[in-house]
Amino acid sequence: MTKEYSTSIQPIVTLNNCAGKLLSTGAYEAALAIFRYALLKTEDILIQDKNEIGKDMPAVSEKATSCSKSNKSKLPSVPLSRPSQTSVEHDENTDTEFIYRSPIHITKRDVDERDCNESELHSILLFNVALSYHLWALEGDDSAPSKKQRLLKKALKLYECSFSMQIDSWSMSITSLLAIVNNCASIYKLLKNTKRAETFYKHMLSTSMAMIEIGEASEVEQLEGFLYNASRLILRDVAAPAA
Asked: Polar residues compositional bias: what residue ranges (predicted)?
């Protein structure tokens, strides 16, 4: 990676990390404002690159731009990099559903050594914006159900768009996959689409079990939380014959 290349995205990386810290403290609107500004700056770079190399621009960048245009206020690889250390973990002593709450924090090493390019940075910002809408909806006032539903739908669309982008670019990690599937399932459940939520939970369970069977469980961040949600399916299936 050239020095010029690294320098071109470093200000955006700084904005992302600052917004991630705000998100972890519950400052959702402030975090969203910064994430979205960083997203626009990333899109400017993608458009500039596209103009320079014309039709040879990778398809992932085309999809990234179209995702942004689909909703100007909307706008996941979970990790290329480590989640913020201030993220909220699942409390096994409660009966609350696990939500993957870790915004993606990008280190200098990620930029210098792991080839964090503009498209991957755009994907990271998409995930962080989706997560911001999701957490804002969960922490919002229950007396305003229409606003909560609107935020959840924005988050859902962005999670799914992020998933599609990462699959197309072959950049999706197992943690990223499980985080998006888990959070989408949670949103579908809140939106009363039980059938869709169950489909996502089943996919999450099969993926988690596959990682355990091949001895790669340590590669999945917060695996216990994903299994906690998936265990409800197991318990239901075990109880069904008795009923």
From this structure: 63-74
Which amino acid belongs to residue 165?
Answer: M
Name the pTM for this structure: 0.79
User: Whose CA is closest to 140, among 157, 126, 154, 160?
Assistant: 154
Residue 83: beta bridge partners?
104
User: Hey, where are the domains in the chain?
Assistant: 3-242
212: three-class secondary structure by DSSP: helix
Q: How far is 22 from 35, CA to CA, in rounded Å?
A: 10
Q: pLDDT digit string (tens) for 33-65?
A: 999 999 999 888 878 766 655 554 444 445 555
* % helix, strand, coil for the chain, step of 5: 70, 0, 25
Taking Cα atoms as reference points, which of 67, 70, 82, 113 lies closest to residue 17? Answer: 82
If one counts every other C-beta atom within 10 angstroms of the C-beta of residue 79, the result is 19
Q: Are 16 and 106 in contact (CB under 8 A)?
A: yes
Contact 203, 181 (CB under 8 A): yes
